[in-house]
Amino acid sequence: RTELALKEIMSSGGAEDDIPQAERKTVTDFCYLLDKSKQLFNGLRDLPQYGQKQWQSYFGRTFDVYTKLWKFQQQHRQVLDNRYGLKRWQIGEIASKIGQLYYHYYLRTSETSYLNEAFSFYSAIRQRSYYSQVNKEDRPELVVKKLRYYARFIVVCLLLNKMDVVKDLVKELSDEIEDYTHRFNTEDQVEWNLVLQEVAAFIEADPVMVLNDDNTIVITSNRLSETGAPLLEQGMIVGQLALADALIIGNCNNQVKFSELTIDMFRMLQALEREPMNLASQMNKPGMQAKKPARRENPHKYLLYKPTFSQLYTFLAASFKELPANSVLLIYLSATGVFPSGRSDSEGPYDFGGVLTNSNRDIINGDAIHKRNQSYKEMHCLHPGDLYPFTRKPLFIIVDSSNSVAYKNFTNLFGQPLVCLLSPTAYPKALQDQSQRGSLFTLFLNNPLMAFLFVSGLSSMRRGLWEKCQDYLRKINRDIAQLLTHSRSIDQSFLQFFGDEFLRLLLTRFIFCSATMRMHKIFRETRNYPESYPQLPRDETVENPHLQKHILELASILDVRNVFLENTLDDY
């Protein structure tokens, strides 16, 4: 490729003898670095997606080559412009690849700092209009590169909650798609329009708007902040386990999604991350090395959209294998329920159904297997029994599904800490159906105040009142922590997990969610309430009078006290 490029350069730039040796070497070195970078980048897709060790050295080599390539084209821009014919879109492609590297480094490490790095490179492409000349060239494949850049930039902005930038990007992308389809009359117009629709739905998924005084929308972040989780106080005896790994699994067909990320998956991944730090590398500085932050900030995550059973088990086994000592594996399942097809004489861990992680049907002789055969069980259903082998290590499970109660029938075979938090299996008909915009249960775990406002019938709120309620909610969380750690009858698994900040916040939010639903006037059926394995002592947690008083006080601040029962204990 290098020789071919040089021949093309020489034929366009005059005789070979006219090109100084130093400039010829510059072009040769650039072509070599460009080829090497593409080769390494293409090799990334061949790396196994699971396991945390195998990929690191390869990623490091790829980063090194791109660092050299980026600096090289900066230092020799004039020669490359004159002799190689370097175009601005080619510089944009290099910057876009570096952005992709940082984004994939975030996916591999769960360090949110790398999202900021991806954002800075993607932003520079836009600010410097690297792709602006692409539309003048009669090459549809170049325009597609530009459209894909926009789609990737939008994903990074969504993850960083930069919704204002997302809205601007969507407008620009819409114009680009219109121009692209008008000029080239391509067949992928429907797919690109679907991308626009998905992003628009994703932006509007939150059921409540927080507004400034000038009616602009306040962007709320739901990652763990310094004041997020209630602090452990003196006298609280909790375990020393740390959340190290999480599998976030999504398969809700009717739910808003973008780029293989459902809104439930998006909310849960944010609940398992700290606010990102900015590593402050700039485009004109050699800042592309994958520097590891001083300490591990976030648990490692796998995001699995509609995994088959074999894919899911492979990732589970990899997480289990690499789980450090005194660490916890979290499994989050947001998926359609699979119910038992008939009455069973036994009540084992495969007799209550489970959740469907992938909607594909097995094909035999060209025909899908139908469930008329009572003994047939759905292949991609994850049963409680499927998780038994992994309870050899501390396991924290969250199931958001219409058949979450299947996981109540768990058995702790190995005596390790084990907790399952289970969503309601149905919501009251009087509650506006929001399932397409994400599950209410997961919203409580991600943004409890927004969920509380939604069940209270509120759709917007002023920033000042929002912040006042957030302060009160922090007080409620502190009191829930006191109730949980001082309970005399609580299962020790809850306390074992309570030492970890992320799990502590999830547990306090779960109890707040459960207490809120039990006090709400329209949540009157047992299936409307979250449950857990092991069961929580209700009188000391979700039905504690002290907590109920707090919920009524929060409702009073919002002027929605009429939505809740005053004397709940008398109503049971």
From TrEMBL:
InterPro entries reported for this sequence = SCAI, SCAI_metazoan/Viridiplantae
Cite a single GO MF annotation.
transcription corepressor activity
Per its record, how is this protein called by name?
SCAI protein
BP terms from Gene Ontology: DNA-templated transcription
**Native species of this protein?**
Erythrocercus mccallii
